[in-house]
Each structure stands twice: as structure tokens, then as C-alpha cells.
Amino acid sequence: MRQKVATGILALAFSAACVAAEGTPVLIPRASTTVTPITITGNAFYKGSDRFYIRGVDYQPGGGTGVESDPISNLTACERDIPYFTKLGINTIRVYAVDNSKNHDTCMNALAAAGIYLVLDTDTSKYSLNREDPSESYNSVYLQSVFATIDAFANYSNTLAFLSGNEVINSAANTNCAPYVKAVTRDMKQYIGSRGYRSIPVGYSAADVAENQELMADYMNCGTTDQRSDFYAINDYSWCDPSSFTTSGWDTLVKNYTGYGIPLFMSEYGCITNTRTFEEVAALYNTEMTGVFSGGLVYEYSQEGNGYGLVTISGDTVTPNSDFTALQSAYSAQANPTGNGGASSTSASTTCPTKSSEWDVANDDLPAIPAAAEVYISAGAGAGPGLSGAGSQNSGNSSTESTGTASAGSGTVTETATSSSKKSEGARAPTFDFRALTVGVVILFSMAGGMALL
């Protein structure tokens, strides 16, 4: 699934760009208005020394139109919606797709000024894993777009986390995609580290599928540090008002995830089977759950024709629905626990699940990063293709795909024979002459105070 603010809070920043020898523009990451970055200790998020609970909404206006758009490169949308985020009392939004060729300074700074963090999916409809053919769609063209999105958002201090995928596995029949999801997570972590960014958490958003959601949780948290996800997020619609902690099965959810060694939160929740009064908020931010969960994101902010919208948007006009008022009241009524809310200070790995009728993964091997994508790790991804790029799902070929497996912790690659049934070569990855790239001194000037030199 997926009133105007005073312009004074929209801190503007000047960003410089360097240009490759052949004239290809390469965007430089920007910095944002200063807020305290979110970090991880044990199985919880922290803002400084204080436990941080995600209180938020999923945000993708226009997501139901079939035309992908980027809400946080849109100044009008930010001015329109941030006051309503403030009224709700949220501290986080999740955005499912952005245009990585655009500048996001103004909206990200406005969100930061309002105390709002971003959980960002790095995929788009054109640049993502294809669950029908994960090996072909895991290619350097795809990773170039993912890495370019990281570049575009890594220096915003209110970028809370990146999502390496959303519901790639959505049934018991496509768990064979798991190694590719985990490989993308590994690659993103490696890219963040190699490019010298702060340690921005990377994780996966899992579908509400009883057969394998917990198996995937174990899989994303098993192995060595370089293989393990930084957090795990679940989409869950099992609490349908009127309900309770036990009637909904959330007590079992907590029991099953107790002892899980990385932060866990709900990346989507909010069943609409009945009238939504958001009774589950009182449970989610209560100590009966906070030892395991770090809050969640309600699906979704805007009405997109599926009945989940908290508000209805028409042009520049926002009309809150009854769900908006109910969620506002629920958030207001339930404070966070004092102290650490029962969180663990240690981060324990799990045991990788074994192959079964519900888990089609034979061993712990992961596909090696495609050789063409290794160039990006050391030299940078270059300019992002945006939402109108040619796409990556059919770009797999002998030059762009992974050709082996990588050993955990070492990066060692074991080459494997190319399958004789390999599809004919498709679209090529865009090429960037990084050796010819000359990078000048880039200085970000602050118009609001607090911008940093890169």
C-alpha cells in the first residue's frame, strides 16, 4: 500500500554542483536546518539520549492517480500540509517515492523546522526489484538510482531512515526474493559508509503476510553486521476497531518479536474495516509494546480513492476527515512512556531460517553487488534518473547483473557460470566518466544559520 505555513520557516540553502568533463551534471548532497539526527542503540531509536518513538503518517499525495509524483520537491504541497502534520502532533512522515534529480532543500528544511523526520523509500515504480524476476532486476542501473537517492537525502539531519524495499515479498510463493532485498540493504549500508555519510539506518518494510513476515524478520537480522538490517518495519492491519490488545492479536505480535535485536516499528497501520477511532495508538505507545516496538506510521495522509485518507486534498485546499480528528485525539491522549520504555541496550542477531515450504531460500549466500555498481561505491552515483527515467527492471544483462555470491564481511566474490537461459541484453546503464570528473570546492551557504561546510 502506499493552510499555508509562514514562509519564514522555509530556510533556503544554496547548493553548488560539479560537472563532469563531458557536461553531465552531478548533484552534490545538501545539508538541512539542524535537528538532532536519530540514532540506534540496541532495539530502539534515540534522539540524543532520549528514546525516540515514531509518531507519523504515510505521505504520498496523488499516489492513487497512477502518476508518480514527488511531494517533498513541491513547495506548494509543503506549505499546504505541514500545518496539518503539526495539528496531528506527528514527528515523522514516510514518503514512498521521490524524484532524485530534484532539489528538496526547501521542504526538508521546513519539515525540520516543524520537528518532522523522514522515512524514505529509495525505490520508485521504474527503479525497483521485480518480484517476478529478482535476479535480472537486481542490477547496476537500479542501484545507481538507489544510491543517487541516498546522495540527495543523506545530508539532511532529519532523514531518519531509508527503506530498501516495500512488500517485495507479498506471498508464500515469492520468498526467493529475500536474498536480493537483503543484498540491496547491504549495498545501501556500504554506500552510506563509503561515501562518508553519517550512519543513517537502512531497513525493509514487510507485507502483512502471516506465513513469512517473521521469517523475513529473522532473515534480515541474521548473519554478520554488514549483512544485517539496521531495523525492520512491518505493515500491519490486524487491529480493526473496536478491538483490544488481545483481540487484535497484537499481544501475540509482541510475544513473537520479544528479544528481536534491532528496532521494529509499524510502517503502515490503520484498518478501515470499521470506523477508525485509532484505539491501537494507546497500545502502541504503552509499555506493553514499547519494549519491542518503536511506534509507527498511519496509512495514510491523503484520500487516494481507497478509503484510508485522513484528509481530502483539492488543489491547495485540505479538508480533514473524521479519521484526522480521531487520530489527532488518539495521539494527544497517549504520551510516550518515561525512561527507555523497556528497550534493550544490546543488539542480538537471529538465526537464519532454513528452507521450507514457506521459505524458499536455500542458504545464507547473498548475490554479490554487480561489478558495474561497485564503481559507484568508490566514485559516487552521479545524477539521479528521476521519475521519468527509462527504468531498470528490464536492464539486466551480462554487464549490469550480479555474477556471483559474496561472503559475509569480506566482500569476496565467488564467480558463477552465466545461465544459458539468460535473457538477451536489455537497456544499458547510463554511463558516467568518473575519471574525467573534476570536483571543485563546494560550499553550502546558509540563509537561516546552521548550514555546514561539506
UniProtKB/TrEMBL annotation:
EC number(s) given by UniProt: 2.4.1.-
GO biological process, alphabetically ordered: fungal-type cell wall (1->3)-beta-D-glucan biosynthetic process; fungal-type cell wall organization
InterPro entries in alphabetical order: GH, Glucanosyltransferase
SUPFAM superfamilies the UniProt entry points to: (Trans)glycosidases
Pfam families assigned to the protein according to its UniProt record, in alphabetical order: Glyco_hydro_72
Positions with biased composition (Low complexity): 343-356, 390-421
Keyword Lipid metabolism on entry: no
Protein name: 1,3-beta-glucanosyltransferase
Catalytic EC class: transferase
GO cellular component: plasma membrane; side of membrane
PANTHER family linked to this entry: 1,3-BETA-GLUCANOSYLTRANSFERASE GAS1, 1,3-BETA-GLUCANOSYLTRANSFERASE GAS5
Signal peptide (from-to): 1-21
Gene Ontology MF annotations: 1,3-beta-glucanosyltransferase activity; hydrolase activity
PROSITE patterns tied to this protein: PROKAR_LIPOPROTEIN
